[in-house]
Amino acid sequence: MTDDLTFLHCDHVSRCTATVDKTFQGYASLQFMKEGTLFLSYDDAQYTLAGPSVWTAWPGPKTIFRRADDTPFWDHRYVAFCGSRVSSWMTQGLFPKVPMKIDKAQSLSEDFDRLIRSARRTDWVGRALAERQLEAVLLTLKDGSYSSDSSEDFISGVMAWMREQVYGRPNYGDLASNLNMAESTLRRRFREATGTALHTRYLELKLDVARELMSGSNLSIAKAAHQLGYSDVYYFTRQFAQHFGVPPATFRKSVQ
Predict the structure, then answer these.
(1) pLDDT score for 2
(2) DSSP letters along 172-214, please?
(3) Lowest-pLDDT choice from 103-117, 166-180, 199-213
(4) Which of 2, 19, 99, 253 has the most CB atoms around it within 10 Å of its CB?
(5) Contact 162/202 with Cβ under 8 angstroms?
(6) Distance between CA 252 and CA 165 in Å, rounded?
(7) CA dist., res. 126 & res. 228, Å (int)
């Protein structure tokens, strides 16, 4: 225990039937369900959690979670804590405020059990271990290491997101958050899996759409550029020419 982080209580209830319905005051918690189905809400935001899932609670929103009608009980682990370290984790983006699906449930179960054992100790060594173990769990959640190792699923998900963004400007930070990992991890994993930089692949998709607009529509080059999210038509023309070897006007004439 240090001044900036204090452990309050923790437990593992393998056949939990509890319902939580309250606004947390002065402390936060990390919750893990290994088995079961739950309904979770933060004020008006509602979620259904099926199977291994992690979520948090913190001062502010009214938080409700309860088992689904067809779930007699659920496997529940949690740890509650307070202190300025929590605010620091929130600022760093280490404290997830939306629920997360867990693929490697056994791995997280083992890490969580070690955390609970350490947090229950009354000596300073145990509490120091608990602090490091809690932060390690949060970092591992952020890194996405409790998620599936399937590169195929990862790439198909990223590519689907890219296709939805071709008419705008991609926010890779948002994508990384949705995948529960750091943006640097997202970029590294994509390059390792495809051999291509994330933004380079995005530009390839955007310019493929630009080529379709030049060959299959009557949009002016300026309107096509604007539709694709470019604020500068000259920049769009330069990128098009670099990618296809000719500027869009020349390409359009060649296909017509």
Answers:
(1) 55
(2) HHHHHHHTTS-HHHHHHHHHHHHSS-HHHHHHHHHHHHHHHHH
(3) 166-180
(4) 99
(5) yes
(6) 24
(7) 56
